[in-house]
Amino acid sequence: MSAFNESFRFGIRNIRKRPYRSFCLVLAAVIGSYALFVGLALKASLNNGIGRMQERMGADLMIVPESSEIEARNILLTGEPEFFYMDVAVATAAAEIEGVECATSQFYFTSLSSDCCSTRVQLIAFDPDTDFVIGPWIDERVTSDVSNGSVIIGSEVTPLSNGKVKFYGNEYSVAGKLGETATGLDHSVFMSRDTMHGILNDAKDKGYQFLNPEDDGAWVSTVLLRVSDDADITAVEKEIYNRAGGIRFIETDKLISDVAVKLGSVENIINVTLTVLLVFSFLTMILFFSVIFHERKKEFAVLRILGTSSRRICFFSLTEGITIGAAGGIIGLVLGILTVFPFNHYIENSLDVPYLMPSVAAVILYGMIGVLVTTLFGSLSSFLSTLSLAHAETYYTMRTGE
Amino acid sequence: MAFLEAQKLVKEYNRRGKTFRAVDDIDFTIEPGDFVMIEGESGSGKTTFLNLLTGLTDPTSGAVIIDGRSLKETGDKEISKIRNQKIKYIPQGESLLSALTVRENILFPFTIGGLERPSEERLLEVSDKLGITDLLDEYPSDLSGGEMRRATIARAVINKPSLIIADEPTGSLDSANTFKVMEIFRDIASEGTAVIVVTHQKETLGYATRVLEMDQGSLKEVV
Ligand SMILES: Nc1ncnc2c1ncn2[C@@H]1O[C@H](COP(=O)(O)OP(=O)(O)O)[C@@H](O)[C@H]1O
Ligand SMILES: [Mg+2]
To answer: Is the pLDDT assigned to residue A141 strictly greater than 60?
Structure first.
């Protein structure tokens, strides 16, 4: 429609004629849309992360050496490589307790970031015969067979250019890659006990001894348990403790609820920041539009004199508001995308809680919400300031010109 | 039938709690081809009267009738259309849109309204007569007060409307330009347009067919 066309062109002309003020208005919209997009994407990533973690935690209970609870949590949550050991007897004892459905043990050690290895990662030896934790994560298309000396890598581990990974001077082919878990295990490499034995020997040759490879069969780092639904988990813990002392229990439910608490506080910070920025953006836009329209009282009077109806004048200023809001919204969205995607890993590491980017569809949705909201801000603030003028009689008299 | 008629027109304003009549019981008619000049002291109510005639201000009592229809019964959209197409108002002071060039300002009423845009010949004819042809692509901020005035006058006269109302249109013009503008008004009146001009310059009164004086809100016929 040509009326729309004309008011759009007139609005654009007005925006261009006042570059400084238009810049401030667009900036306010940029801040609003940027905050909204980044805030929503962060929140979604956090919720997505904890959801995935919950889904992937196959064990109900984790037994670790008494003094190593913090290290064990680090492995699970952040992927910080650690190692600690306890007597293999714990595994044997735990498997015999009534109420324990599955029990499997794992052995933790680390690689180095020097020449001998691809990167410094958590190395985990597991027992394919009893494993119930890692197996389900392995991508169905690849084999989970690690008996031939190959390894399985976490989703964030990058192999060498030849597709292999290197530890203490030897290369190992990759049998499979785990799906994303949003936990520290994304940064881990999994292998059989035999492969582990070989790597421990190589490490010893290079001067790094985790424990004597000769009796590595006598030690485990952790025992993972699945407890039957009707069993009392505290009773199971007590029973195991009676048979094997010097240990500590990490309950998965508790671990996740701890993470949820931490996540809640991070989320609160995001919510508060987001609200403050949105309010700031909106108020700034109202302020600047009021200043503009106050200054333009006379211009509105001229429009009236030339036969522009009140409705048409509102339409003119709405066009300006919508254009500014949408332009700022889109710029904010682009900046948001340039923040959230490239700095994905940086954000993940600095937040220290499980973090998993939402799907592309969700990201598009957040972008649309951001642009929509600032467009709404723009139209609302321009409309409100016009309305305040429309009620003053000075609006359509030219007394200001005297 | 008169194109425009004012009946018992009153506009009251408040000043420090006391109401007073800026326009006090005015009856007025104007016929096509009339060239009416209104003089009067500053503050006597001339601008208020013109604002009432164009429907920009609502009267306290009385009526303005345009084309046989009272403005009171006419909605904002229709009054706007009348101002856009039939009544060209040249207000006191500056009234160009700063975001538009002189040419766009002159053509703006046609851009927003339904009337057909005047031809380029007509535009040049008017701008030549007013001496602003070289300024058509400039913005108002680059013009002198007199040049802006003449651009405003060009905007009003370009399409021979039913009525032209001008509030001290030659205030910022030298006498040569003042007379040129008056000639334009006289010519347009001779073609059937009614013209109302408020002026302080006695030497221009000779162009009018009727001269009225505003005195404390009352309008009296002088000639
Ligand atoms: N909106 C208004 N509110 C209050 N007083 C007004 C208003 N408009 C005009 N007046 C007063 O009405 C009187 C007539 O004003 P005006 O019509 O502008 O006179 P003129 O144009 O003859 O100089 C003046 O005293 C002016 O102060
Ligand atoms: Mg006046």
So the answer is: no
For residue A402, give the chain B residue with the closest CA. Answer: B93
In angstroms, rounded to a whole number, what is the distance separating the alpha carbons of residues B88 and A306?
7
Contact B2, B30 (CB under 8 A): yes
Instruction: Quote the pTM value.
Output: 0.74
Q: How many CB atoms lie within 10 A of CB A205?
A: 12
Terminal-to-terminal C-alpha distance of chain B: 22
DSSP character at residue A139: -
Cβ(A220)–Cβ(A88) below 8 Å: yes
Residues A222-259: tens digit of each pLDDT: 999 998 888 888 888 888 888 888 899 999 888 888 88
**CA torsion, ordered A20, A21, A22, A26, to nearest 10 deg:** 100
Measured CA to CA, the distance from residue A185 to residue A69 in angstroms comes to 16
A17-27 residue pLDDT tens: 888 888 999 99
Assigned token pair, A135: 């197996």
- State the complex-level ipTM: 0.91
The residue with tokens 């390894």 is A151
Average pLDDT for A290-312: 83
Query: Distance from A396 to chain B by nearest Cα, in Å?
Result: 6
CA B9 → CA A13, A325, B57, B163, distances in Å?
A: 40, 46, 12, 19
Between strands A219-220 and A86-87, the pairing is antiparallel
Separation between Cα atoms, residue B223 and residue B217, nearest integer Å: 18
Give the distance (Å) from ligand 1 centre to CA of residue A397.
Answer: 10
Distance in Å, alpha carbon of A330 to nearest chain B alpha carbon: 25
Sign of CA dihedral A62, A64, A69, A72: negative
Report phi then psi at B48, rounded to 5. -60, -45
One DSSP character per residue, B201-221 reads -GGGGGG-SEEEEEETTEEEE
Q: How far is the centre of ligand 1, averaged over its atoms, from the C-alpha of A291 (Å)? A: 26
Nearest ligand to the CA of B39 is 1
Handedness of CA A42, A48, A54, A56 (dihedral sign): negative
Q: What are phi and psi of B172, to 5 degrees?
A: -105, 20
pLDDT band, residue A4 (cuts 50/70/90): low
Instruction: Please list, in sequence order, all residues whose beta carbon lies within 8 angstroms of the beta carbon of residue A223, skipping any fewer than 6 positions away.
Output: A62, A63, A90, A91, A94, A103, A104, A105, A106
Chain A residues within an 8 Å CB radius of B163: none
Cβ neighbours for B61, distance < 8 A, ≥ 6 positions apart: B8, B9, B10
pLDDT of res. A3 = 61
pLDDT tens by residue, B115-131: 889 999 999 999 999 99
Helix pair angle (A310-340, A360-390), 10° resolution? 150
Q: What is the pLDDT of residue A383?
A: 86
What CATH number does the domain containing B67 carry?
3.40.50.300
CA distance A298 to B103: 20
CA distance A62 to A225: 6
Domain around B80: 4-221
Q: What share of chain B has pLDDT > 70, as a percent?
A: 99
Quick one: average pLDDT of A52-69? 85
- Average pLDDT of the segment spanning B191-216: 93
CB-CB neighbors (< 8 A) of B108 in chain A = 306
Radius of gyration of chain A (CA): 31
